[in-house]
Batch of 4 targets.
Target 1
Amino acid sequence: MSVSYFIRRLGLMIPTVFGISCVMFALTQIMPGGPIDRIVQRVKFGSMGSSGTDSGGISEDFHQALIAHYGYDKPPVARYFHWVGSVLRGDLGESFEYEEPVLKVIVSKFPVSLTFGLFSFFLVYLLSIPLGIYKAYTHGKWFDSMSSFLLFVAHSIPSFILAIALLVIFAGGSYFNIFPAGGLVSDDFHELSLVAKIKDYFHHIFLPLTAYVAGQFALSTLLMKDAFLEQKTKAYVLTARAKGLSEVMIAYRHILRNSLTPMATQISEFTAVFLMGSVLIEQIFNLDGVGLLSYDSILSRDYPVVMGIILLAAFAQVIGVLISDLLYVLLDPRVSYKSSLQELS
């Protein structure tokens, strides 16, 4: 494994994350509203028409103090580099809404999004790989045709539409009342036994997890089938059959590794889910994760939290791309680090 390739890829991450942060910081500066406007509005509705105040209900001195407190008395470029300097020291700033460090606020929401990200990752790969292989061996038969139709339907339905449909059908909307409509656990969760807690937890996450997994599972299964079918026609497979090897050994010792390369590229899609979760799914199922936090922070103009989430999501995404590239090279010996470096040059 080439260390120079790994270092080169890490080096490319820096301008990528830097560029994303520049764009998002610029967008937060031109968006209407902000912490000062929110404070002015609160005071305005609480003390309109006070003597010695401006039309907003606060004194000019207090207004200027607010501007200085939030750093808006400095040029945008100076504010950006001040923020970058703080980030490099591990300080993402303080939330306007929660009045706590941004990193603490985001980390407090990690368990929900991380749980669904990990479950989604393992479920997709554990199910899609064997199903894709089976579909490849039953290509053109009734099982392959029926399952392909269902997979195409699952992939074509947006996850939030599927989430709403699952709620309406299975969570007491109009048909069945099998699963809870939201939350991660029941109100009496702490009073339950260990087995009952596990059962209650999975009972709550079944519907949102299905909405998370469906689209990616369908895509991964179809990718696995196509890759497996392509590899089955290669010369090395024909040679293995000519030597008398069984189909099981050919499938799992020869074809499988080469068929996994398209799946490796999908790993980068999950890294953002690990951190960000899904805004709409968390909103629909009332899950207190990072996705819902990002939505609420945008509505409340809590720009430090928004910037912190975007920065961490961008970092997670480029790490995912790096992992995908490395796995691709490891799985396919025909791809060399030297050729990859030439492509990057």
Target 2
Amino acid sequence: MNKNDLASAMAEDAGITKSSAIKALDSMTNAIKSALRAGDKVSIPGFGTFQAKHRSARMGRNPATGESIQIKASNSPSFKAGKALKDALN
């Protein structure tokens, strides 16, 4: 399922237009991005939790040449599924 398919499903379920569903989906993803950028955790009960995790700088190895390289520190998004979502899948 891609963004377009998700927006169509949202529109049908909520009884709104597809363009409104796309705007709502874009708004939600932008709000999550902003919160993660600010260092906040986003929890959606019954669905899961989004959180930014910090990765420290470390030494790595180029698999093609075998030479050691420095990998920069970075922040990475993380998602942990909630119990209701896990239960829905099993």
Target 3
Amino acid sequence: MTDLTYQPLSPEDAAAWRKLRIEGARDFPLGFLISEEDAKAASVAHCRDIIARGALRGVYDGGTLVGFCGYRPQTLARTRHRAEIGPFYVTQPYHGSGAASIMMQGVIAEAAANGVSRLELYVDTANARAIAFYERLRFVRVAMITDGVRIDGQSRDDYLYHLDIAS
């Protein structure tokens, strides 16, 4: 766990990303909009197509993908200053290794280099570990979205956070 790096995912990462996505949806269902079953149903070819859209970033230990996050900059002229992050996941053996911080710092640096001045994300109100991580990085809670997600028919609330990264 000494060679942690940040970079965009490539279609060659499809099988590794699929595996992490299934693991994350299974072990941390509050962090994903998809279920474990939905993640398992996505073929490697389908995952390759998703990755090819360019909205996924990862943290690697050497050449091994150990975490990923969605990164979606807005494209309209009036909202181009904003980008959304999520889902954000690091495999359990890398919790506490700095991998999550490296990935988030990579997203922040990439966003800033491309003129994005505000990052936004949603997090389940019961996801205490994620909330603590985002708040340590100075993300600010700005709203609560009630009934934003339903898991197994149960209503879940999300917090909306943002981070201003303008220099």
Target 4
Amino acid sequence: MKEFFQRQGIDPETVNYTVNIVTPEEIRELNKLHRGKDKVTDVLSFPMLDITAGVLPTKENFPMDVNPETGKIELGDIVINIKEKNHEALIEHSLLHLLGFHHEGDE
């Protein structure tokens, strides 16, 4: 994902995120609990930052969100359905959500 962050203008050494691979049943339950949608989905994103698209997650922009143990900014969590094929593309898609980008038509 180093190249992904570099394309976004972000130093990959300054940010952190987690990826969890779960069963279809687990992702359905998370989707129901957090989004009110009782259905299996491919991926879910749980941002840690209240970030606007285009604002870089730097220590200057988010000084209170730097993990004191790692010195990195925690972007959030990504949960992927194990049945999905292209995990790398789903991670990149989710990272965009963690960076404040949303689907057209989303609020």
